[in-house]
Q: What sequence folds into this?
């Protein structure tokens, strides 16, 4: 394996482009081949990225290109099938969230990656935001004592196109809510035992307008989580209340709010502007990047840096497939509970 990992890209839409640009920023890998059923789009992506080859399907690319790893950034319902092809071809895979439409398909992908001896990482980018990394560090250091409540949400405006169709994995929970569910499970650091949910349908579609979720964890910790497309904008938050303080992070913000009875510097409520330098890995700042993705490119670059490093260092990535399956287990329970009106044990 060369110093620079050779990547294939499956899915040549906007997200595939952004992740490819972020990969180039790391200096650890580069997209050398891309695939999309829309051959014109695949060709345009090849030219934009300077890749050497474009293919009309994932299967053709996996058979015809020399690759170390693959990024899968397709419509949600194609994530698992395409990632499954890649791991069975012996490629390391970064698959965009939510990785699959249900936990059973997610587990099948994890098993296939284990059998192939390749790394599988799920694209939960919020874990690579500097403020949330600092939040997790403070939690692990006991800065707010024992977590006793988590209150979180991820809200967005009206969703159209395939994102309003359940067959393609649409709906706010699959699109943005899975991000905050992953964060909640990550900071909770313990097993979710039970889920209860209220699911409100969106008129004229077969996806939800909103979900309000109660997750009960072992040890008595509870989390309240909201996901919605009813807001006229975008907002996300993650509050962790502990026995000796509290922490709060917000989506699209670098600020972390801390109040701690443990750490003297934070005894009074404190707002910290958390810069990426010193927390996220360095990147090539002069790299070309899409203006519309500017806010997130540094976070995606940190995500790709971790994925590449896990491959070259021969270790599991920090967001393994198993973590993606745990999110899917909760989402399965959300929709079951929303349909029955009863709590669901995990």
A:
């Amino acid at each position: 394996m060369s110093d620079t990992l050779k990547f294939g890209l499956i899915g040549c839409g906007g997200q595939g482009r952004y992740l490819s640009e972020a990969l180039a920023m790391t200096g650890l890998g580069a997209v050398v081949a891309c695939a999309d059923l829309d051959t014109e789009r695949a060709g345009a992506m090849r030219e934009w990225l300077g890749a050497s080859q474009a293919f009309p399907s994932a299967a053709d690319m996996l058979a015809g290109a020399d690759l170390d790893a693959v990024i899968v950034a397709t419509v949600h319902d194609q994530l698992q099938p395409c990632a499954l092809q890649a791991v069975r071809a012996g490629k390391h895979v970064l698959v965009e969230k939510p990785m699959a439409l249900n936990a059973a398909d997610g587990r099948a992908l994890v098993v296939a990656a284990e059998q192939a001896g390749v790394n599988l990482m799920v694209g939960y980018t919020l874990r690579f935001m500097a403020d949330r990394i600092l939040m997790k560090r403070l939690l692990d250091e006991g800065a707010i004592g024992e977590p006793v409540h988590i209150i979180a949400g991820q809200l967005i405006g009206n969703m159209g196109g395939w994102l309003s169709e359940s067959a393609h994995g649409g709906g706010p929970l699959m699109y943005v809510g899975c991000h905050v569910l992953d964060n909640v499970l990550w900071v909770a650091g313990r097993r979710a035992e039970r889920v209860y949910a209220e699911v409100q349908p969106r008129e004229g579609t077969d996806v939800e307008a909103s979900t309000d979720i109660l997750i009960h964890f072992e040890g008595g910790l509870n989390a309240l989580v909201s996901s919605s497309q009813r807001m006229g904008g975008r907002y996300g938050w993650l509050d962790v209340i502990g026995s000796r303080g509290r922490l709060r992070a917000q989506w699209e913000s670098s600020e972390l709010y801390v109040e701690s009875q443990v750490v003297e510097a934070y005894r009074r409520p404190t707002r910290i502007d958390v810069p990426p330098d010193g927390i996220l890995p360095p990147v090539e700042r002069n790299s070309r990047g899409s203006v519309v993705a500017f806010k997130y490119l540094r976070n995606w670059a940190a995500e790709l840096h971790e994925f590449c490093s896990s491959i070259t260092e021969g270790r599991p990535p920090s967001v393994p497939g198993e973590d993606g399956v745990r999110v899917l287990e909760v989402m399965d329970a959300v929709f079951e509970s929303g349909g029955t009106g009863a709590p669901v044990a995990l």
Remarks:
- The two ends are 41 Å apart (CA to CA).
